[in-house]
UniProtKB/TrEMBL annotation:
Transmembrane segments: 63-88, 109-132, 144-164, 176-196, 216-233, 254-277, 297-314, 335-354, 360-383, 395-417
Domain Amino acid transporter transmembrane: 35-416
Family membership noted in the UniProt record: Belongs to the amino acid/polyamine transporter 2 family.
GO CC entries: vacuolar membrane
Protein name: Putative aminoacid transporter
Membrane-protein topology: Multi-pass membrane protein
InterPro entries membership: AA_transpt_TM
Main location per the UniProt record: membrane
């Protein structure tokens, strides 16, 4: 009898070791763990930095340089806190952890809300990428090639989606690491180009620079945009699943690297462009750029950023939409993934050509989905987790939760105020 149980015991030990050992390439369910720290960093940073960076110069105009920097740091800090809380909860669930499963285990009645929040956030951000591309690509084509059929916004958008569409069908984020790297490099070059313009290009509009702006109702609508810009939480679970070494110290190191890099890029881009254009700066700062060679390079690079960012939003958008429409369906089912991905692409394209504005997307997504994902859900799930909780982290979680409630309330009030 004893010998008959030995193989089962060894099998269980092997599975247990497979889940915990960082050097193994597969785990339960055949999860591939080939993602390195560098790959995870690039993917998560590119998920965080997207269309939100364009609004930072205007945010510095709204709040002033010093206040804007302070709010960027505060939002980044609480974003880090949310990511760490998710990482802690993921350690308890193993490599198969997802945001939906975490909700099911911790607070089952919130699972549908969680899935819808992630879907709404990712769908809205993916839509914003297509809207920006539809605005920038025709201008770039006309500048380089003159007026042609491709300079029509709708045709250029169709050509754009034809190029990036195949990447959206990938199931693993690790397969997007090279496109993500291209996006990160493009963002860095855009910031360097902004610095070059600031140093070498004569600028006529430099008036109205404010370092501290008095408190006003205009402040309320921008809090959600700061949080929106640090939202990469929907992909932390996929990174945790695919990382070779997904121990908590390793995950914390990854989170610190991503958040600090994003904050430096946001502050640099925001301050430099605000100093360039002053009170004339627009919500989409690329609209301030003249039609010269440097501006064409920046627009071209930013289109690259939009192209590599779109699949990173479609991936979790698809997963959580599948959870909503078919909770019992396995997420890996190929045909369902194909149908849902195609539906997301078509619907975002149709909304982009309808003329929907970026402002409403930033306001609604930043006020609702991003705030819940970054600030409110992490604290709630951590409070309900059956783990040892250090007092300091509990206190910070309460503060982060209250900050999330404040951002949500202020942003919603601002939306209502501007639509009355």
């Amino acid at each position: 009898m004893r010998s008959s149980h030995t193989p089962n015991k060894h099998l269980l030990l092997a599975f247990s070791s497979n889940l915990k050992h960082p050097g193994l390439k597969t785990g339960l369910g055949g999860v591939n763990m080939a993602t390195t720290l560098a790959s995870g960093y690039v993917t998560l940073l590119k998920t965080s930095i997207g269309s939100g960076i364009l609004s930072f110069p205007y945010l510095f105009k709204t709040y002033g340089i010093l206040t804007g920097i302070a709010l960027t740091v505060i939002s980044g800090f609480f974003s880090v806190l949310g990511l760490i809380l998710y990482a802690i909860c993921s350690q308890e669930l193993g490599r198969t952890a997802t945001l939906s499963r975490l909700a099911t285990e911790s607070m089952p009645y919130t699972r549908m809300i969680v899935d819808f929040s992630v879907f709404l956030k990712c769908f809205g951000v993916a839509l914003s990428y297509l809207i920006i591309t539809r605005q920038l690509l025709p201008v770039l084509i006309e500048t380089i090639f003159g007026v042609s059929m491709l300079s029509d916004p709708n045709i250029s958008l169709l050509a754009f989606i034809s190029c990036i569409g195949p990447f959206t069908y990938f199931n693993r984020l690790d397969r997007l690491k090279y496109t993500s790297l291209c996006g990160v490099v493009a963002i860095v070059v855009v910031v360097v180009a902004t610095l070059y313009r600031y140093e070498h290009t004569p600028v006529t509009t430099t008036s109205g620079i404010e370092y501290l702006v008095p408190l006003s109702y205009a402040w309320m609508g921008g809090f959600g945009k700061f949080v929106f810009s640090f939202t990469c939480h929907q992909n932390i679970f996929a990174i945790h699943s695919e990382m070779e070494d997904n121990s908590l110290p390793r995950m914390k190191r990854l989170i610190y690297m991503v958040a600090s890099s994003a904050a430096v890029i946001y502050i640099s881009f925001g301050v430099l462009n605000y100093l360039l254009y002053g009170e004339a700066v627009k919500d989409n700062v690329l609209e301030n750029y003249p039609n010269d060679i440097l501006a064409s390079v920046v627009r071209g690079l930013y289109i690259v950023v939009m192209g590599v960012s779109y699949p990173l939003q479609v991936n979790p958008c698809r997963s959580h939409l599948i959870n909503i429409i078919s909770p019992s369906q396995k997420p890996g089912e190929k045909f369902l993934r194909f149908v849902v991905t195609t539906a997301i692409i078509i619907s975002t394209c149709l909304l982009a050509v309808s003329g929907m504005g970026l402002g409403i997307i930033y306001s609604v997504i930043g006020a609702t989905a991003s705030t819940f994902m970054c600030l409110i859900f992490p604290a709630l799930f951590y409070f309900n987790a059956n783990i040892t909780k250090p007092r300091g982290l509990v206190i910070l979680s309460y503060v982060g939760f209250l900050f999330g409630v404040f951002v949500f309330s202020a942003s919603v009030f601002s939306i209502i105020l501007h639509n009355i």
